[in-house]
Give the backbone structure.
Amino acid sequence: MSNNTYELDNSALPLPISQIARTTAQRFANQQPTPEKAQQVRLNTLAVSVVNDYLQMMEIPTDLRVSDSWNPIMQLSANVADLEIPSIGRLECRPVGLYEQVCAVPPETWEERVGYVVVQIDGALQEAKLLGFTRNVTTETLPLSRLQPLEALIDHLEQLRTSPFKTLVNLSQWFADQCEAGWQTVESLWDLLESQPAYAFRSSVTTEATSPNHSEAITRRAKLIDLGITIIDQPVMLIVEIGPEMNQQTNIRLQLHSTGNQIYLPTGVQLTVLDESGAVFLEAEARSADNYIQLQFRGEIQERFSVQVSLDEMRITENFVI
């Protein structure tokens, strides 16, 4: 991961706060039960409005109506400042005051966000500055020195719009036992493979937990991958194991196994991890006597990657978000 910093004063983009934005922010604020909550909603609304105006100028479609920040119930129950970008996701727009060096980022906004923009709002609520952008946040305070320039935001949104990650498997939801269609527990999928000798499969998936302190939170799911191997006439099994790590990271272990009466994987079958840009991050290839191959890495919340299983000209890809 790169760490790009820059001078805020040189790269911040000043924008006027429209009268419509101020009127809307005051209307939302008037619906709140306390002055503190009213001020929070007012600033959140202004931050979202300014980012919305900026993206409209950049010809990037937005939809305020479906954003939580425009929902009266969510305004009251949470501290959210999200902006829905159709076909891409939700961008969090966090307000800060003048001379502040860090931005508060509530935990309820750490997930289901494609990025974060920090908006500095002056005391008179007349002008705002877009200070910069970051992809991920996992702490309640974001140092402004960590921000990247707005050009990085536009590049990031364009990358998401054109990326191959159309259908994403959300790994974080697996911890709550919510899995997408096709993914099952190893045990239930095992029941479908009655002809598989126990020694050829079960002995190799009883892997040691990668984080002993969190062993009770390890979650493992499996899926059959059909590579059209007509000679062998057996699919391979992709197992994805996830477990929490320190610093809000997730440990991910991938295993590819033979199934059926085949003790070994087809020679040359490959297991590859691609990063968000489509570049190869990790890969492994089965030799002549491998009954499984595996890869292991760590990722942060909202990071995206894909897993590719390939043999000769056949390739199957599964896309994930942590």
In short: The radius of gyration is 23 Å. The helical segments are 8-11, 19-30, 35-57, 72-77, 150-162, 186-191, 198-205. The chain has two domains: 8-159, 168-321.
